[in-house]
Amino acid sequence: MSVLLQISDPHFGTEQPPVVAALLALVERLRPDVCLLSGDITQRARRNQFAAARRFVDRLAPARVLVIPGNHDIPLFDLPARLCWPYRNFRTAFGDALEAELASDDLLVLALNTTRPRRRKHGEVSPEQVERVARRLRDAPVDQLRIVVTHQPAAVPDPRETHNLLRGRDQALRPWAEAGADLLVGGHIHLPYVIDLRARLGLPRRLWCVQAGTATSHRTRAGLPNSVNLIRYDHHLMPWQCRIERWDHNAVTGAFECVQAERLLLDRH
After folding, report:
1. Is 70 exceeded by the pLDDT of residue 237?
2. What is the Cα–Cα distance from 165 to 123, expressed in whole angstroms?
């Protein structure tokens, strides 16, 4: 079995130290194989915020860590930096790569950079990214759980959130589903949910939208606590399936606790 922990929107600079400590304790307890940081690592893309995030990431070992930027990881008020070197501080902390890929016996994770410096917060997936991901998915072994990661969501549960949707999604979802994607994972709006995209959009095979809340920031929404997602997958289980667990921070106990678990059926045809 492989275990992936999704940590989204920690927004270092607005993080709550007790919640960070509780999250590190959860990592120590669960020992995930992979930790995925799906954007908005910092609040204002400042060097000290990235340095704090880097110290946090270093404590996730021995898990393999994948990190992509979110819109908050590009300078907002420093216009010269935003236009000329928008990812400088991100790269100082996490290296030059703005996208990440992980392939193992159980998992294929394709994490995309959907930020665009010319946009303030809206994300976009390009035709080149759509084709590259579809090509990689088509080559994936049948045993792998195939995960595509974008910071902004491809679907929202409330029409009032439509303005937060990923640009280019309509051109991406069908090709990715046809190529074999299982999960489309993201964050951005600080709301945890799971949506069946096949049922909603009439896709040819199952594709699940899995969204996470904010992991550590005080900028929670809708009265929800800080939360992270845990994805468990064992290719020996039949029918093909994965388990999605939502772990919320409990302010009374000071710990992250599993509050919801779903079995998502997968297509293999």
Report:
1. yes
2. 8
Token pair for 39:
């954007």
Contact 151, 68 (CB under 8 A): yes
Distance CA 100, CA 179 (A): 19
Contact at 8 Å (CB) between 265 and 243? no
Query: How many Å apart are CA 69 and CA 87, to the nearest integer?
Result: 8
Q: How far apart are CA 149 and CA 101, in angstroms?
A: 10
Q: Of 267, 265, 258, which is closest to residue 5 (Cα–Cα)? A: 258
Q: Compute the distance between CA of residue 98 and CA of residue 85 in angstroms, rounded to an integer.
A: 13
Burial grade of 77 (CB within 10 A; 0-12, 13-18, 19 or more): exposed
User: Could you read off the pLDDT of 73-121 as tens digits, one per residue?
Assistant: 999 888 788 878 899 999 999 999 999 999 999 999 999 999 998 877 7
